[in-house]
Structure formats: structure tokens, C-alpha cells
Amino acid sequence: MYRPVSRTASSLLLLLVVILAPVPGGGASANNREEGIQVPNPGTDLWREVRKRQQPPLAGVKPPLNGAPGVDLWMEIERSKLSPVGSTQVKSVDSGTLINPFGDEWRRFRMEWLVPYGGYAVAGMFLLVVLFYLIRGRVPIHAGPSDKRLPRYTVYERMIHWFIAAIFLFLALTGLTMLLGRSLLIPLIGAEAFSLLASASKEGHNLFGPLFLLALALIFFRFVRRNIYQRGDLTWLLRGGGLIGSRHVPSNFFNMGEKSMFWMLVLVGGVTAVSGVILVFPVLGQGREIMALSHVAHAITALTMILVIIGHIYIGSVGMEGAIEGMTTGYCDLNWAREHHDWWAERCENNGEVITVEEAFEAEGFTPGAPKHHRPAGETAE
Fold this sequence. Notes:
- By secondary structure, the protein is mainly alpha-helical.
- The chain has a domain at 144-364: Fumarate Reductase Cytochrome B subunit.
- The protein has helices spanning 3-20, 26-35, 44-51, 71-80, 101-136, 155-184, 186-189, 191-223, 233-238, 256-280, 288-319, 325-328, 334-340, 342-350, 357-364; strands spanning 148-151, 331-333, 355-356.
């Protein structure tokens, strides 16, 4: 009567021994569960060798294998600069291309040329502006601010100017964050904070980027008539706007410097805007080569505009007395106009368009009164 109980107890004991017995390699499995299972990437060896590859050998000399499958194929592609196209059931752009060396050329250009030299150019422009201010100083109104004004920009013209200015500054800051932020900002704010900033910059850049194309169109159609070449523009350019020589250089509503910046903004900015649209919407049938070339064109033209706009902001704000009033109030000082746009100022005076400061303030809806920089008539600037 005790035999069934004995058999049952023996079976339970044997089962317990099997469960608790150590399994060969069980310690390693436990360690894998604690540390996470590392699954090797089958292409790791190939890409490690690709990154360490030397210059391609001379023609007719077969490169060594280095123990990694596919290196011979990659070296052959590098020498021929061709992307072997295969066949696939996936129907999309470049779907039949397994390895495209053009992408690696774009990567090298961005990391070895665009990022470092772009950063040097922006920093150099800021340094140049500071040196120019320390050496040249602020350009004053030599006759002194007057109590007379000339109407210069309408409300609509000022509105589209500040619209494109706001869009450009936002795109410039977010673009520079993505281009230079990894090397400049990570040491300051850390990788986590930069990751958040870079992601927000990318989304904001892509979202508001197409608006720059709209702003360019508005600026072009409004100001193109005033930026056509006129008599005296070449002389102004050759004399550097009066910096070369001692003679005064007359000009019209826009001088040749302003006209040059307008056409740079329209043409160079147009390339920036169109290439940006190509990058934002990669569903238009463009392949990797078009995307890479668009990125290069986008970055170079954007950096060019940033450098020019830095100078424009300086001249339009602290660099020249009275320059910013036209875009803030719509009116400019009469003496400023006589010194910088004398042909246009003369026509305005002949047409009876000169008004007082009080009339200009009333027209803009402000309380009548002299502006803060007003000095008594006849007092000259230093």
C-alpha cells in the first residue's frame, strides 16, 4: 500500500533535480539576459573595412580582400564611380541600386568642407563687422538730423520686408543649428538638450521653409521696378559707395549696393528656396544624386546669403545713422536722403513731398513730437 506513494515521491524528487540542475552555458545565458542579447550585424565587417579603406590601387592591380565579404565589390564601385543597378520587385526611385557611392561623396563633402569652412566664414563675417565698426565707426548724418521727412516706404512694403526678414532669420538660425550645432552646442548644452533642439530646428525649418519662396515672390514683384540699372549705378559701384576717393557719389531711390543685394536675394535666394523644396518633398521622383546636389546648392547659397545679410543688418541698424527709420516709420530724414540718395531726394523736394516730423508722426498714428535722435537745426554730427 506504500509502493504507489514511494513511486510518486521518487518521481517528484527526480523532476526537482532536473529543474535545479545547472545547464551547460546557463551562466552565459543569464548574463545575456541581464546585459541584453547582442545580435551581430552581418554587414558590420564590410562597413568597418569600408571606413578604413585606403586609396584605390592603381589600374589593373586587384585590391586585397582584408577578410571582409564585399570589399572587392565596393572598391570596384569606387574606382568606376558607377552604381550597379539590379532588378527588384520594389518599384521606386533607386530601388534597384544596392550601393550608391555618390552618397558617400556627399557625406565627405559635408563633413570635411561644408561644416568647417562654413563655420569659419560665418565667424569671419562677424569679426569683420566688429572690426569695421571699431575702425570706421557709425556713419553719421553729417548735416545733422533735420525736422523734415520724406515718405520712403508704404505700410505694405514694410510689412513684406519684415515678413521675409523674420522668415530668413528663423531659417538661418535653425539651419546653422543643424549644420554647426553638433560641434558647437553639444559641448555647451549636452547631447540630450542638443538632440531636442536639433529635432525642433529640423521640423521648424521644414515647416516654414516654403514660406521663404512666397516672401521672395512678394519682394520681387513689389521692388523689381526700382532695382533696374540706372545712370550712375556703375560709378557708385566702382567708387565703393564713396569709400574710394573723396568725391560724393550720387544715387537714386536705391543705390547700386542695394540693387546688388536685391538681385542676390532674388537669384541666390531663389536657388536656396527651390533646392529646399526638393529636399522637403522627396516624393517628386528625385534620386539620391539630385537630393545630394540640392543639399549642396541649398547650403552654399544659404551661407552666402547669411554672410551678406549680416552686413545688411549692420548697415541698416548700428552702422548708419537714420538708415532704419524708413523701415520702421515709413519716412526718412531729409538730410539723410540728401547725403545717400540725393537724386531721389531732389525729385521729392521738387514735387513738394517734404513734410515735418509732426506730420509724419500723425500720418503714422503716433503722438506728435520730435524723435529721440533729433538735434537742433544747424548742429552737425561728429
